[in-house]
Amino acid sequence: MGLVKKSWIAPGLAMLLSSALYAAGAYTVTTSSLSEAIEQISEISKKPYIVDARILEGKKANPITGIENLEKALELLLEGSGLEAVIQSDTIVIRSKGGEPAMLNTISIAEPLLSENTEETHSYTAPRMRTATKLGLSIRETPQSVTVLTQQRLEDMGVTSYQDMLGSVAGISLNRWDERIYPTARGFEVDYYLIDGMPTYNISDSTAGDVDLSIYDRIEVVKGANGLMTGAGNPGVGLNFIRKHANSKTFKGDVEVSAGSWDAYGYLADVSAPLNKEGTIRGRLIAKHEDKNSFMDGYQKSNDVVYGVVDMDLTETTYLSLAGEYQRLERDGIRWGGLPAFYSDGTRTNFDRSKTVSEDWTYWNSETRAFYADFKQYLYEDISLNLSFVDRKLYSETSLLYFGGTVDRDTGNGQGYVYQYVNDALYHEQNMDAYLSIPLELSRLEHEIVMGFTQTSSKLKHNDWSMSVLASTLASPKINLYNINVANPNLTKNTSADPHKTTQTGFYLAGKFSLAEDWKLIGGARVSDWKYKSDTGVGNREFTHEVTPYAGLIYDLNENHSVYVSYTDIFKPQDKRGASGEYLDPIVGKNYETGIKGEYFDKRLNASLSLFKIEQDNVAEEVPGVFAPGTTEKAYKAASGVNSKGIELEINGEITDDWSLGFSLANFEAKDAEDKKVTTTSSRTMANLFTKYTIDKLSLGGGVTYRSKIYAGSGVTEVIQDAYMLANLMVAYKFDQSMKLQLNVNNLFDKKYYEGIGSDSMVYGAPRNATLSFRYSF
């Protein structure tokens, strides 16, 4: 959002700030008002404009259609008006013919010309991001391995959900398990996320959620420890989901319909409009519905999303945004757990991928309701106060059937145990963040400081459940996997989990300091308090004054390249007691990193190569034969934990106006204190490539995903998935500025592979599938 302070600009001037690096496409203007027409040109080109409002009064615009060149579009638009347009400092300047150029260097504005939004930029990269430090840093200035999954890249790949998105990030392993996934990065569990920069520990209903991405502009990814902004968590990766806003001062929107494999149908509408004549109050509504079956027998899924946001420029220096979100995800005929990896004779199973252990009475439903509020007030010049609040409720309800054991190859009789389970749960989150952003200039060098306070709370309001066991001995076949016929037990939810609440507060300070023209120091610290409290008092614990430092040093080698070194860490509370009865201090994950970053083609392409090492301290290690005083709990002592080290390469952006590229490669090794490999269900080497080339109205794209060998278990029950590659394809045709048809094909060569593995069990990945979508923009 760009705000204008007229007192800083010559009287009568108005400025519109937009978000991109270069022109976004052909120019079509139908309004008769010259003032509105110039705003439309600015939005399409993603360039700000300056004009004395008095010279536009009463003037009409010439309609233009499909003009590809910005200068030509402006020339035709202004023809006969006595005005002309020039491009100065990447800004459109409208003036009387023969007038003097504007002195742009005397203008102070509230936001830089480049915002972080990626909508309509058509780019695979972003000019800046705030996830690592809350400072407005470019990717090159951020002293960690980072990337931004932009709106255009997600759209081209046909990625619409959180779980699918994770699969497109090299360095993250999914290990899918029924509706649940267990993602890891750099050898560590991914156990927190951020929404608009505020940490959340329930992105949906635990790991079984699959958040729809239609309400998000982009996902910012920070590899390694991200404790400065999140406080508690593991040092693997931080993912920040940035919501869409109502930025348009004109009525516009998109309508999309899609159809795909296994009777998949989807409908989406995204409409933005000004809510007053001046456009200082703007609204946006996104609504989506999906129905689909699956390659799995009996599986059905429906998804409903409604998101509304109102953005208000209350004054020239005051901004308020209010938003609401609703998502309902219903899944019937679902699997719980995987399939046996071995027959009872010890040979490896080879089921059809459509096979699951399920019944028509099984389901796994989730619902999210959220309210968001953001407030921004400029206090003096560019110094701003920023307040954010979110209230989220996450419901889940299940009825599940599980089989564990082996199956006879000939008869299909399962020997093992069968569980039936139902539950109904509600989590309630309330998060707030308040910070000051203070840009300043000293000795002709730019600096920025942020200081703030954040509080997050997550409460399990209730979790009512029940479970029955049909068989608990391996010698009792109670299910036939070739002809599953298990009656619905209609269990009553007669057991309740202990309600509990986790609260975290933190004070943080971070700064970007230009030590010289070529040197920048990024530094900061956070002091956190963390508290767990249950209604019964069981497990209550509290950790205070946990200090989380952040330090990075960047040196610009030349116009295009920088090298950096950084140290970051993060803490992870634990529930193990020492021999004297006190809870052990939190685990600390320390992240050391160095690398080189580059910007090319007028900063439209970002590249980085990084080396990292992560060390864990204070990990609980059992003390044999010792118990916490007065309890039967085993006692533990603090010890060294997992050590992880590796290398990552990222290249994202545009090579030319017609050629976009997203490439990432990650390799790591993680071992515990005894030098044993950990998280062996995570691929040690991962690569993702997606590229698109546009020829006139036709766009051709494709991608490759590589995952190295993973394994689980040992001996005769060891399950192995060898290294594999998946290929994807995209073809799009843009009939005009309004209509586009796109085809996405995933797993092009129909590779059969395990997407998740465990001891003596596995989950198949999806076979080849396709989606055809048609979008109309107005």
Can you characterise this structure?
With 778 residues, the chain is mainly beta. The chain folds into 3 domains: 6-106, Phage tail protein beta-alpha-beta fold (3-Layer(bab) Sandwich); 146-243, Ferric Hydroxamate Uptake Protein, Chain A, domain 1, CATH 2.170.130.10; 252-777, TonB-dependent receptor, beta-barrel domain (Maltoporin, Chain A). The chain is built from 5 helices and 47 strands. The strands form 9 sheets. The chain has a 22-stranded antiparallel barrel. A 5-stranded mixed β-sheet has the order 7-15-16-13-14. It has a 4-stranded mixed β-sheet with strand order 1-3-6-5. Strand 24 (383-407) and strand 25 (413-442) form a beta hairpin. Helix 1 (34-45) runs antiparallel to helix 2. The longest helix has 12 residues, at 34-45. It is globular. It starts with 12 loop residues before the first strand and ends with a strand. Mean pLDDT is 90; it is low at 1-24 and 101-114. InterPro entries: Beta-barrel_TonB, Beta-barrel_TonB_sf, Plug_dom, Plug_dom_sf, Secretin/TonB_short_N, TonB-dep_rcpt-like, TonB_rcpt_CS, TonB_sidphr_rcpt. Keywords: Cell outer membrane, Ion transport, Iron, Iron transport, Membrane, Receptor, Signal, TonB box, Transmembrane, Transmembrane beta strand, Transport.
